[in-house]
Amino acid sequence: MKTHLTAVLAGGLLYAPFASAAENATALTADRISVFQAPLVCPAAPQIGCGSASKPILLDLEKQPGVFQAWLNRAGTIIAVVWKPESDAETRSKVATGLKEDRATELQGDSRDKAVQNFLSGKGWYHGADVDRLSEEEADIIAARLVHWVQAKSALTKDKAEGLQRAFSDTLRKDLTGKSVGPNHLEDIAREYLDQEQIKILKQAIKDEEAIENGERPVPKEG
Question: At the topology level of CATH, where does 5-129 sit?
Fold first, then answer.
């Protein structure tokens, strides 16, 4: 999985197996990659990056002069920018300055080398709108947690729990990826599966979930 970065750099060339077909035609030199530490961890699912927060940043980056591609690592801690061959120092500096507004700091030295090495592995990195996959994963995590909270305080059959979780996941996936065609209310969706007392439990669970997403309380330990 890991490559010998120092040896490859000495040869002057780095290859990204996940680049586009056009990019694959020419080798990618090390000086065409910049990496930035970024605070894009998902509050509701801290094991992954936040797709909804990172998506506009990555898409905007790829509109900037000199930028070929922008990627986010799975953890939501590193943004990798692949520069066009003709990009110059001034262009790159302007992009780096813009990223500072998003609280992203460019990595240098050993930290940069390790991040580039990880990037070049081609595993666990999301390009542009592909971070929607992270949003879908986040939706599944939130849906499971909401159902778990209802189950913990009421009798909910396995069939109803599974059906409710699927319904929540589907709705939250659309919401977090910007594909909803209108407002979706989890309470209304849940009425097909829950009685009035369980709806009250769900309302509190939704408030607790909102507090997690706002950073007002930690993610609960499962199990």
Answer: Alpha-Beta Plaits (3.30.70)
